[in-house]
Amino acid sequence: MKSNLYLFAFLIALISLPAFGQGTMIQLNFAPALPLGQTADFTENFTGRGANFEFYKMNENQTGFGVEFGTMNFFEKASDQLFERGSATLQGTQYRYLKITPIMGSFIYVFNANKSFKPFVAMGGGLAINTQTVSMGIFVDKVTPRQFIIRPELGAIYQISDYVGIKLSSKYYQTFENSDMRAQSILGFNLGFVMLNFNN
């Protein structure tokens, strides 16, 4: 609980940073995702049930610090599966659900900041709030661990007016294993609406 309060305070501090030079960038993204590695061992289906919000305070229209809040929801129906928990062993069809909710601070570097086409790179890190559920008939096994998460991103923004742009990017999310859950790996794809206020 205390670690969650520290993270919340850190994110509020980032949002409250003075607008040191230029302006702001707000991104609203549709975020389908592909599970990789150990995540794909649990549920291998590509999902279109994802979205995220990003806010940046920009310096010289080129670098920015901000926050990201998002969610990715995976589902898979797996037939003839064996599930063991303690002394109980069950076999049958499993309904597997995995929800990853990243909350993180982020840094962005924008190339060609004064042109319409703006490639960028970004890096984020923070907390992932996860919910993993296995349902078999009346039996439900659910865990809700927290894990540290990092996220590099590569993409581009096309500015279509003074204050509006569209975004296309790819993000790689990696959590770190702890006693409650194995590490999770996800490749995300963002199609976004961008609101720019660079105060040129």
How would you briefly describe this protein structure?
By secondary structure, the chain is mainly beta. The protein contains two helices and ten strands. The protein is elongated, with a radius of gyration of 19 Å.
**Any idea what the radius of gyration is?**
19 Å
Tell me the number of strands. Answer: 10
Mean pLDDT reading: 87
- β-strand percent reads over 45%
* Straight-line N-to-C gap: 42 Å
Strand order, biggest sheet? Answer: 1-3-4-5-6-8-9-10
The shape, in one word, is: elongated
Oligomer: single chain
Order of secondary-structure elements: HEEHEEEEEEEE
Fraction in helix: 10-25%
> Which structural class should the secondary elements be placed in?
mainly beta
What's the main sheet like?
8 strands, antiparallel, barrel
Instruction: Please tally the helical runs, counting DSSP H or I stretches of 4 or more residues.
Output: 2
> Stretches where pLDDT falls below 50 for ≥5 residues?
17-21
Describe, in plain words, how this protein is organized in 3D.
This protein has 200 residues and is mainly β. It has 2 helices and 10 strands, in the order H-E-E-H-E-E-E-E-E-E-E-E. Strands 1-3-4-5-6-8-9-10 form an 8-stranded antiparallel beta barrel. About 2% of the residues have low confidence.
Task: Present the secondary structure layout.
Blueprint: H1 2-15, E1 24-30, E2 33-36, H2 37-42, E3 50-59, E4 63-85, E5 88-110, E6 117-136, E7 139-143, E8 146-159, E9 164-175, E10 185-197
Antiparallel strand pairs: 1-3, 1-10, 2-10, 3-4, 4-5, 5-6, 6-7, 6-8, 8-9, 9-10
